[in-house]
Amino acid sequence: MPAITLQNFSYAYNHPKKVLDNITLSIETGSFSVILGPSGAGKTTLCLAVAGAVPHYFGGSSAGKVYVTGIHTKESSMQQLSLTVGTVLQDYETQLVTMTVEEEVAFSLENMGIAPQEITHRVEEVLDKVGLTGYEKQAVTDLSGGQKQRLVLASVLATNPKILVLDEPTSALDPEGTHSLYKLLSDLNKEHGITILVVEHDIATVLPYADQFILLENGQLIFNGTPEKVLSYMAAKQIFTEAIPPLWQLKLMIEELTARQFASWHTEEEAIAQLSKVLEEEADKNA
Amino acid sequence: MQKIAPITKLALTIFVTIWSIVLQSLPALTALIVCQLILLAIAKVGSSVYKGIASLFAFAAILAGMQYAINSDLLLAAITASKMIAMTLVFFILLATTRMQDLSAALVLQCHIPYEYAFMLTAALRFIPDFLAESKAIQEAQACRGYSPQGNVLQRFFSYMAVIKPLVLKAVTKSETMALSLELRGFGSRKTRSFKNNVTLALQDYAMLLSMILLTSYLVMQIY
Amino acid sequence: MELEKNESELTIHDKNKGGRYRWVTITTLLLAIGAILHLVSPNIGGVTPNWTIAMYCIAINLTKPTLKQSFGIGLVAAAINIPTSKSAFPYGNLLSEPIGAIICTLLVCHTFNMTLGKLNIKPAVTGFISTVASGMTFITILKVVLSLPLSVYLYAMIPVVFTVAAANAAITQILYFPAKKLFDLKGDQ
């Protein structure tokens, strides 16, 4: 069973201006999916639809269905869905509402009515998971941006969700913070089998981890599939080309010029390895 | 003092207030003030608390001065000021020795105040340093754009509003994210909510509560 | 995946669903601002506005809470300022702020439109009356508890209450409309 399924889903905050338009999509359990698209494409709204905030929080009007681990979101409640889907919003600082690190994680668990001893245990466990052990008593205000981001993640992970949704989690982080956050998400994905759905502008940073790209434009699903397929599609159809990472622009250009096909270039190292192998072959041929 | 349950300290606050109102003699009020200062010393509170206490004394002195200026009764003025100090000092004890989070947990668990209000209290305190930093940033930015806190009353008023308006608008935007996030984190069903904080009463709390009740009834009997 | 042939019509959801806790969060954040302004605000021509009252008046004008909720808002407003204020008379606030908040709610929810020409002056009116209500409660308690002479009350305290109320009326009026515009925006676009 897919973790997330959208069936002909449309949504408008203010009827009848559709922000999502007839989207049919399925995201496999245990996948690491990235939503791409220019601003105003409906990326945030798609995240909110998976979390149930659309339509439960925003009202508006909708058509079609969204299923999350088989639950029909429209017929469930946000509180019920919060047990399955953990959501990190774009403005993550405002998601932190308590005074200290451990209280922030405990807050999620207290909302569920978990017993105090169990809370202490789980707080310890989840802070370890995100690398914030030792910061328990620290004031939330004194954390760095990256640490705040990790704390929000911890507070969301505390309730053991099966799906994590993150809306542009790295927009306020430096490159190092971005890299370590994605490393952490990838670990959660691979080791704990959590399905990850993330909105990201910088495609290069997610290439090493993602296994599905979802391309939106003007509220419509343009294309979805493996990163490689989606990037090739974007280049071929000239859609949202400014987002194609330079490395892939190079790859696609070489492929077009030489009619040679490369495997995916997830990192610069992979690109270098493949290119040098090709160059060696060429050199051998010419020799 | 830090080991005493928040609810006991809340009760102490109320009792001290009753004593401050009931007591009419300067020596008795002075004794009450001295006892409270000793409690603060025992609790080893930080220097910022003493700064607050200093301004409390100053405020009380102004009140006494005003009163003396009008009806030139020195004793009455002194009693008024002492009452003011006695009943406000206890708040310093309460807040300097109790974490706000424990206090709000006690209010919900033992005084049955709906959780939303306790949440508002601690969350507001969480955002105060953020907004403080924000207001400084806005003030600096406005200064760069040529706003100055000079001129007549109205000009100064409007230049100050130019700092506050963006702050308020920021709060409105954030309130949407925060309300959404609360629901995404399962906030709401009060019936199933639990508390990690331990705010239960120990033997010492019962002992304190009992002695406070006895003292109060003694004082009330003395008067009536 | 199998595609359903026809896209179904959009169904409109309950509009009021959004923000079950919006009144909680907006009040929390505005009261936090009120508390810091209370700490850092310079006096303007000798008058220090009561920012806390101005902020909950804006929050109440925006969210129109129930009377029970506004009583709680008042208590929280008073409680927040106990640990953050320089010097005060906490009991006075614990009584005066709920009264101010309740008066404000009554005015907001149960009175007709108030306009001056084309200008809606309800925010200013609610800001002024709530501040007077709260301020009068505060000084009356102060007078009774500390047995202050009547002349101090009449000639020193009451004028201060009305001056602060005038400043608060201006603040509430100026800040309410931009806040309202932003408050009513729904969704991200």
Describe the structure.
The complex is a heterotrimer of chains A (287), B (224) and C (189). By secondary structure, chain A is an alpha/beta fold. Helices cover 42% and strands 20% of the residues of chain A. In chain A, the strands form 2 sheets. Chain A has a 6-stranded mixed beta sheet, sandwiched between helices. Chain A has a 4-stranded antiparallel beta sheet with strand order 2-1-4-5. In chain A, β4 and β5 (71-72) form a beta hairpin. In chain A, α4 packs parallel to α6 and α5 (116-129) crosses α6. The longest helix of chain A has 19 residues, at 268-286. The N and C termini of chain A lie far apart (54 Å). Chain B has 224 residues and is mainly α. Chain B is built from 8 helices and no strands. Chain C is mainly α and 189 residues long. Chain C has one domain: Arp2/3 complex 21 kDa subunit ARPC3. In chain C, α1 packs antiparallel against α2, α2 crosses α5 and α2 (51-63) crosses α6 (150-183). Chain C is globular. Residues 1-6 of chain C have low confidence and may be disordered. β4 (61-68) of chain A pairs antiparallel with β1 (11-12) of chain C, so a sheet runs across the interface.
